[in-house]
Write a structure and sequence with these properties.
Helix content of chain B: under 10%
Structural class of chain A: mainly beta
Number of strands of chain B: 12
Strand content of chain A: over 45%
Helix content of chain A: under 10%
Largest sheet of chain A: 7 strands, mixed
Number of helices of chain A: 0
Largest interface: A-B, 28 and 25 residues
Oligomer: heterodimer
Largest sheet of chain B: 6 strands, mixed
Number of strands of chain A: 11
Shape of chain B: globular
Strand content of chain B: over 45%
Distance between the termini of chain B: 41 Å
Chain lengths: ~110, ~110
């Protein structure tokens, strides 16, 4: 089955710690995205990548970092510089090169800072 | 810039009622338009889409028509079920540039038996 997997589903972090969220896709999609979702605020774009070894900041990149060393993987690191990291994080992918193609989303990771 | 405006929720309906969730957009050119659905604790999944003016997207009894003249893409369903309770997101993908989607804030739908 083709799709996007995110792990872990739940993650707890102490203040001051970095933590990495995993995102893997086997859809052979070029583009991958990370979103943050807070109650009542919809989706906010953190980072996106349209090709391997290249990525761009989204609207709220401060305190986050990413890498795109392989086409199928786009991990997100939440650093200690992120002031309020407790949120639901969604990874998505798309073919990425036309205006008609939808995004495919993973099941999400809920991060809680203790 | 591009923007998507959805009606505020929650929308609360009884089973078998008619559903409308309004969505209007601002964008240059001819964007593609999408509705996504998010069930509690899950990621988003595509519900339907339309890629040009006057197109109608449909899926699972839901419909939406791309209205260029009113810049709208309202979601409708003739008879909702309890299982339709979820958050619905309207989104656009611009016709040029980076192909980064713009999402609305989401509208929560609660259907009572």
């Amino acid at each position: 089955d083709g799709g996007i997997t995110q792990s872990p589903k739940y993650l707890f972090r102490k203040e001051g710690q970095n933590v990495t969220l995993s995102c893997e896709q086997n859809l052979n999609h070029d583009a991958m995205y990370w979103y943050r979702q807070d109650p009542g605020q919809g989706l906010r774009l953190i980072y996106y990548s349209q090709i391997v070894n290249d990525f761009q900041k989204g609207d709220i990149a401060e305190g986050y970092s990413v890498s795109r060393e392989k086409k199928e993987s786009f991990p997100l690191t939440v650093t200690s510089a992120q002031k309020n990291p407790t949120a639901f994080y969604l990874c998505a992918s798309s073919i990425g090169t036309t205006r008609v193609n939808e995004q495919f989303f993973g099941p999400g990771t809920r991060l809680t800072v203790l | 810039g591009n923007s998507v405006t959805q009606m505020e929720g929650p929308v609360t309906l009884s089973e078998e009622a008619f559903l409308t969730i309004n969505c209007t957009y601002t964008a240059t050119g001819y964007p593609s338009l999408f509705w996504y659905v998010q069930y509690p604790g899950e990621g988003l999944q595509l519900l339907l889409k339309a890629t040009k003016a006057d197109d109608k997207g449909s899926n699972k009894g839901f419909e939406a028509t791309y209205r260029k003249e009113t810049t709208s893409f309202h979601l409708e369903k003739g008879s909702v079920q309890v299982s339709d309770s979820a958050v619905y997101f309207c989104a656009l993908l611009p016709s040029g540039g980076s192909y980064i989607p713009t999402f609305g804030r989401g509208t929560s739908l609660i259907v009572h038996p």
